[in-house]
User: Fold L-type lectin-like domain-containing protein from Strongyloides venezuelensis.
Amino acid sequence: MRNLLIFSLIKCYLFHLIKCNGFGDEIVDTSIHEYRGYYRREHSLIKPYHSSSFHVPYWELMGDTEVNNGEIRLTRNEQGKSGVIYNKSPVLSRDWEITLSFSVTGTKGKLHGDGMAIWYVKEINRGSAFGLISKFKGLGIFLDTYHNGNKGSDYQFPLIYGMVNDGTKEYNIDNDGSSTRLGYKSCSAYFRNKKKGSTNLLLRYFNNTISIYTDIDGEGKWKKCFNIDNVLLPIGYHFAISGHTGDLHDTHDILSFRMYELDFVRPDKGNEISSYDIIPQYLDEKENEIKSIREDNFSSGLKIFILFFIMILVMCFAIYYGLEYYKNRIEKSHKRFY
Assistant:
């Protein structure tokens, strides 16, 4: 019994040690049908898509989006198509997880495009960034199927990457968003022309960390794409999914979209800003490191200057009082002779 207790304690310690040091991942290799939170129907999109009035409950369609029995079709396999479907209910959950089952099909050659995007944004406005405006406010996760810029790069398309925007930056489709890519991270995912229903993506926002997992080959288990810490997102924004084609084209379909509210108790920090008022941003660790180095250098320089100033001041006082002392000694010696 004692040995069993010791073994359990060691096992528990090792589990927390691995988890804290980033060697473990609670999502990797778990079933795509396993969920970790509270299912929220008002933010989800599942069959049957239509209600009795032939509307899609909680969702609004824009552009070339079509609702069929088996899928929500964002674009047909035609040039110049753009479709968006967005959730009318604002998200009030601080931490959440979504799973998307989708399909992208077209010709078997290398010429196809442009791709899809998952959005968590303040406002829905159509534009050139996979169907929404390039100066959006919030989070965009891009499933990019066509290599526009960076022809000499090692990226293999289709490529999954993200961007967090406060509304001032612009997504640049000409360089595949490389200049504003979230955390400088991405992953290749060959999701085109797969068996329908076999391509799935999980997007998780938990404790200010964005994580993306995929099941591209229909294995039924999640594989890690990437995760990025220090991402700040407010509540009250809207989910959306969009698809876009240009001169090159594919069919972009949504099969299901499920949202789960995650239960995470955040410590009360007193004067912390309201979750509604948070500005979407990525606290870049490299920029923070450079800023910290600059602050340390400035602080060190200031300390040296103050120390040098104090030393000069002490020397001046020492010289002054030394001269005064010497002057008094001379005066006293003169008085003795008189």
In short: Residues 284-327 form one domain. Residues 221 and 313 are 71 Å apart (CA to CA).
